[in-house]
Design goal:
Layout lengths: L1 H19 L24 H4 L8 H4 L9 H12 L5 H10 L11 H15 L1 H10 L8 H4 L4 H19 L3 H5 L1 H20 L7
Helix pairs in contact: 1-9, 4-6, 6-7, 7-9
């Protein structure tokens, strides 16, 4: 149960990232030249020394002007690219979850380490398949991921793919505000229950 819950949180993170991604028309390559926010992810000396790789234009277009620093993002891109057979596959993964290459959300050692764990658990091809469906798994702490059940990892990846399939069919305007819609739908039953209780002691 703990394992499924942990992986579900990764799933929700991937969905949230998809909901927050701005429309393509609002993204510019100029973002590469702007300052990044304070780094939130823990970067160790090994992360700072990680190799860099030029970010493809398709990926640069995904990143808004407050989301990235060139050097650290190129290090994350290099790590993500190493997990896939082709650049197109890596680009697709970045498009599905930009959080994997944002320096304040992830680090190169998370990516390299998590993929190594997946390879040991599932083999290289199955590991790549999981990362294609659920790129957010590469934001996990590798030592924590190593304690997860392989079947749960595969199942969660399939769930993420289904969720993103549903999100992809939702009009952009609604998709951008889906988090607010969900809040209202969850809050209304609670508000009604409180009203029905009218100050009396009753369980929600």
């Amino acid at each position: 149960m703990r394992s499924d819950l942990t992986l579900l949180l990764v799933t929700m993170g991937a969905a949230a990232a998809a909901l927050r991604t701005p429309p393509l028309a609002m993204r510019t390559v100029a973002a590469l030249r702007t300052p990044a926010p304070a780094m939130m992810a823990e970067w160790k000396p090994a992360d700072m020394a990680a190799k860099r790789q030029r970010i493809p234009e398709e990926v640069a277009d995904l990143l808004t002007d407050f989301e990235m620093d060139v050097a650290t993002t190129e290090q994350l891109w290099a790590a993500l690219r190493s997990c896939f057979d082709s650049e197109d596959e890596a680009i697709s993964a970045a498009m599905r979850n930009t959080g994997t290459i944002l320096p304040y959300l992830n680090s190169p050692t998370n990516i390299y380490g998590s993929f190594e764990v997946l390879e040991e658990m599932l083999g290289t091809e199955a590991a790549r398949d999981v990362c294609s469906k659920n790129p957010g798994i590469l934001q996990c702490n590798p030592s924590t991921l190593a304690r997860e059940n392989p079947d749960s990892i595969v199942s969660t990846a399939n769930t993420v793919e289904k969720i993103e399939g549903v999100l992809g069919s939702i009009p952009p305007a609604l998709r951008q505000n889906l988090d607010k819609v969900a809040f209202v739908l969850l809050a209304l039953p609670i508000a009604k229950r409180l009203s029905d209780c009218a100050g009396a002691t009753c369980g929600l």
